From TrEMBL:
This is Aminopeptidase N. It catalyses: Release of an N-terminal amino acid, Xaa-|-Yaa- from a peptide, amide or arylamide. Xaa is preferably Ala, but may be most amino acids including Pro (slow action). When a terminal hydrophobic residue is followed by a prolyl residue, the two may be released as an intact Xaa-Pro dipeptide. GO terms for molecular function: alanyl aminopeptidase activity; metallopeptidase activity; zinc ion binding. Residues 564-882 form the Peptidase M1 alanyl aminopeptidase C-terminal domain. PANTHER family: PUROMYCIN-SENSITIVE AMINOPEPTIDASE. GO terms for biological process: proteolysis. Keywords: Aminopeptidase, Hydrolase, Metal-binding, Metalloprotease, Protease, Zinc. Gene3D superfamilies: 2.60.40.1840, 3.30.2010.30, Neutral Protease Domain 2, Peptidase M1, alanyl aminopeptidase, C-terminal domain, tricorn interacting facor f3 domain. Pfam families: DUF3458, DUF3458_C, Peptidase_M1, Peptidase_M1_N. Its cofactor is Zn(2+). Residues 109-196 form the Aminopeptidase N-like N-terminal domain. Residues 454-559 form the Peptidase M1 alanyl aminopeptidase Ig-like fold domain.
Length: 883
């Protein structure tokens, strides 16, 4: 089913884009479903430019062609050719109807792309995944997003084995056939690209809810899952309803079919998929119950349910012209989800979480061999471009534009975008054009952000002139070269800022030569040159600037703050995000000092400010938990020229030790006890916040008094009323190598043996063991009967957690970690190229490792790259890595 590479895979370039010579206006598909063999009959109503028809060439991969007819006549073999994944047909004209019948083998499809089986032959169900280019694994088609067609789909199958038959669109009849078979038909009135096609067939249970849109149209929401999981779908249903209501209110967008189906599967390559009218979810992002899901997972379910639903407009009603425009739907939809989640929960916490993710996942991507623009200029395998850059940085670009237009202006612009491009396949130019036109503004300058890879560094220098009572802020930007882009240009960087007086109060801003907004306490400066200076007048004392408030642009800020300045912001900045940010900067400085072995004013200031905040009961518990968390190891590694992950790990531990000592063992214990007394099953913000802080306090205590912390963790594990508390305690025991860890792990293994999502956590928690011992553990775990390379969640729970989230445990100086990963990637690649390629990106950053690890990583990656028969997916990643 998959594409094995030749020596140099072909590159697809944005600059080569051509509108399709042929279009398909209507598609009629009939599926005769079976696990080992499914027959797909397709009738395509074709259209082409009558002035000069090019040969009709359709995509098709791994299909066995059984029958082919053109305009009702069987086609002789001389009139068609099927080779190199293309079916070429002679004699087609504008208005022709091409009918093909093909056979595919779902049970053999381990790549989980196209039509495949989820679960066992006996009880599993059939489903499809078509984005980006999976439809060509199902039938012959112009499998590109700018070919939009109306779909009528008929499913036929054994009633006993496949009682539920679903496809996208509205139901259009069902009935019985001979031999115990039955059929169901679906008609989708909205023309769509093939990547949004989906079907599901099998034994599934449902929960249903009636929904009435804002304009009064009734419809049905249905969530489907296997029998043992259906009782865990209620939270997702509530989240879906909240998301639908929110999109009506925030963007005036209603759902547009009579029924909205959502299905959960344990076998899925990504998070979820927005197929029109039939969203399919990785069970990890749909099922939630207190006994097996953590608070973070509840929030993730809400976010992903909303993300997929929002795609109905940003992605489906208006889709992408080509895959280079992927961020048009993804960046925009991530942004819409971030707004929604901020409205449903705490805006500051949401912003902290998203920026932390951007720094952990996207900044390293932008700084390494896989760096690419939000709109890439070329690719070999499009599935490798579902990246943090396209999603997360893409969302930051939308956020900057939204900030420029203001709340009402952005809404006006989005209304214009949706109405102008409804039913079309659009580009990023179309998007910025519609937003700009609705506001009489030219947003063209922002296109440069879409074309340029790399994270800009913004340097800020402030100078106070007491005699003139002026404060001059000089901002300069620089972006380092990235692969294929040696020269970078200056980008428009919106810098939201405020100035604080020495007592921690915001001062009115009077920007020289600019009367607008005079006296406001916050404003946005746009830096669009290499260097610019801004003068503020009537400033009574040397101020402390709070820059990039709310993270107003995806850049790395460097500012010559004194530790006391950052401590002032950490205590007083009313912008919750910037308050956290000041703490992060202070901790990063303290880290630098510890590394150099210097005594540290930054460390003192950080510990001092945080221990004061620790005693301040007015600080929100969840924010406090985040404030008490220093930047992660991946982020801290970005500060090193030559990375030794073990040193980074040890230094970060020291940092936490200093903090814990400063707060004090007794204070930590008292706080823990007070928080533990509140144990509740509730999901409200206050309960979640208490659990989050409780875990952080326990982790800090474990740094200075492991014996006491392990005792408390064991109690917490034994009495935990929910997964958040249970897993938090287990993590403290396992990572602290506590004697009690063994029994707790055995208990967890036994208790959750039948719960795949909980078992994933059992694998992950052990994959995060620090130091050399983890390698042995990973080897043990992969021989556990519950481990399989065939399930993406399981692979990621063990190998993903280890190679991505445990730098100290993965980057062993003898290269044993690299060899083990490379070996598994090779095996995995033969089963599922999408998953192997994504896991291989864990090698990102290897070029900046210290010499011993650097050499070991290079030889492991090179050996993998030299292996014959790798997929196009994995080849592209390892080759880019080595360039
Ligand atoms: N469009 C989905 C992501 C997705 C992409 C590819 C997939 O299969 C290879 C599956 C899902 C989203 O953004 O949610
Ligand atoms: Zn998406």
């Amino acid at each position: 089913m998959t594409n094995r590479s030749d020596a140099s895979p072909t590159l697809i370039r944005l600059s080569d884009y051509q509108a399709p010579a042929w279009r398909v206006s209507r598609v009629e598909l009939t599926f005769d479903l079976g696990i080992d063999a499914t027959e797909v009959t397709s009738r395509l109503q074709l259209a082409c430019d009558p002035t000069g028809p090019a040969p009709l060439r359709l995509d098709g991969e791994g299909l066995t062609l059984l029958d082919i007819q053109l305009d009702g006549q069987p086609l002789p073999e001389s009139a068609w050719r099927y080779q190199d994944n293309v079916l070429e047909v002679d004699g087609a004209r504008d208005g022709s109807v091409l009918e093909t019948r093909v056979r595919v083998t779902p049970a053999a499809n381990t790549a989980l792309e196209g039509l495949y089986l989820s679960g066992s032959r006996e009880t599993g169900f059939l489903l499809t995944q078509c984005e980006a280019e999976g439809f060509r694994h199902i039938t012959f088609f112009l499998d590109r997003p700018d070919v939009l067609a109306s779909y009528t789909v008929t499913l036929r199958a054994d009633r006993e084995r496949f009682p539920v038959l679903l496809a996208g669109g509205n139901p259009d009849g069902h009935g019985e056939l001979d031999d115990g078979r039955h059929w169901a038909r679906f008609v989708d009135p909205h023309p769509k690209p093939s990547y949004l096609f989906a079907l599901v067939a099998g034994r599934l249970q449902k929960i249903e809810r009636d929904y009435v849109t804002g304009s009064g149209r009734p419809l049905q929401l249905v969530i489907w899952a296997e029998a043992d999981a259906i009782r865990h779908c209620g939270y997702a249903m509530d989240a879906l309803e909240r998301a639908m209501r929110w999109d009506e209110q925030a963007y005036g967008r209603e759902y547009d079919l009579d029924v909205f189906h959502v299905v959960a599967t344990h076998d899925f390559n990504m998070g979820a998929m927005e197929n029109k009218g039939l969203n399919i979810f990785n069970a990890k992002y749909l099922l939630a119950d207190p006994d097996s899901s953590t608070d973070e997972e509840y929030r993730a379910v809400e976010a992903v349910v909303a993300h997929e639903y929002f795609h109905n407009w940003s992605g489906n009603r208006v889709t992408c012209r080509d895959w280079f425009q992927l961020s048009l739907k993804e960046g925009l939809t991530v942004f819409r989800e971030q707004q929604f989640s901020a409205d449903m929960n705490s805006p500051a916490l949401k912003r902290i979480e998203d920026v932390a993710l951007l720094r952990r996942a996207q900044f390293p991507e932008d700084a390494g061999p896989l760096a690419h623009p939000v709109r890439p200029a070329q690719y070999s395998e499009i599935n490798n471009f579902y990246t943090a850059t396209v999603y997360e940085k893409g969302s930051e670009l939308v956020r900057m534009v939204a900030g420029r237009l203001g709340r009402d202006g952005f809404r006006r612009g989005m209304d214009q975008y949706f109405s102008r491009h409804d039913g079309q396949a659009a580009t990023l130019e179309d998007f910025l054009g519609a937003l700009g036109d609705a506001n009489g503004i030219d947003l063209g300058a922002y296109l440069a952000w879409y074309a340029q890879a790399g994270t800009p560094r913004l340097t800020a220098r402030g100078r106070y002139d007491a005699a003139h009572r002026t404060y001059t802020l000089t901002l300069s930007q620089h972006t380092a070269p990235t692969p294929g882009q040696p020269h970078k240009r200056a980008l428009p960087i919106p810098v939201k800022l405020a100035l604080f007086d020495p007592r921690g109060r915001m001062v009115p801003l009077h920007l020289a030569g600019n009367g607008a907004d005079a006296g406001a306490s916050e404003r946005v400066l746009v830096v669009d040159k290499a260097e610019q200076s801004f003068v503020f007048e009537q400033v009574e004392a040397a101020p402390v600037p709070s820059l990039l408030r709310g993270f107003s642009a995806p850049v790395i800020l460097e500012c010559d703050y004194a530790p006391a300045d950052l401590a002032l912001l950490l205590r007083h900045d009313p912008d919750g995000f910037n308050r956290w940010e000041a703490g992060q900067q202070l901790a990063a400085r303290a880290y630098d000092n510890l590394r150099e072995g210097n005594s540290s004013a930054a460390l003192d200031a950080w510990c001092e400010a945080l221990s004061a905040l620790f005693g301040d009961t007015s600080v929100d518990a969840a924010l406090l938990a985040d404030l008490l968390t220093p930047p992660g190891e991946i982020e801290l590694s970005e500060r090193e020229r030559q990375v030794n992950p073990s040193h980074v790990h040890a230094l970060r531990q020291q940092l936490q030790e200093h903090l814990a000592l400063r707060i004090g063992r007794e204070t930590l214990e008292q706080r823990y006890t007070a928080l533990a007394a509140h144990t509740s099953l509730e999901l409200d913000a206050a309960s979640q916040a208490r659990r989050r802080l409780k875990r952080r306090v326990l982790e800090l205590l474990a740094r200075i008094d492991p014996w006491a912390a392990h005792g408390l963790a064991t109690l917490q594990y034994d009495n935990a009323p929910n997964m958040t508390d249970r897993l938090g305690a287990l993590a403290v025991l396992v990572r602290g190598d506590a004697p009690q860890a063994h029994a707790a792990l055995a208990h967890f293994r036994e208790r959750y043996a039948d719960n795949p999502l909980a078992m994933d956590k059992w694998f992950s928690v052990q994959a995060l063991l620090p130091g050399a011992v983890v390698l042995e553990r990973v080897r043990q775990l992969e021989s556990d009967p519950a481990f399989t390379l065939k399930n993406p969640n399981r692979v990621n729970s063990l190998f993903g957690a280890w190679a991505r989230s445990n730098p100290d445990g993965f980057h062993r100086p003898d290269g044993s970690g690299y060899q083990l990963l490379a070996e598994r990637l090779r095996q995995l690649d033969a089963l599922n190229p999408q998953v192997s390629a994504r896991l291989a990106t864990a090698f990102n950053g290897w070029q900046r490792l210290e010499p011993t690890r650097h050499a070991a990583a290079r030889s492991a990656i090179a050996a993998l790259a030299a292996h014959p028969g790798l997929s196009r997916n994995l080849t592209e990643i390892v080759q880019s890595m080595l360039q």
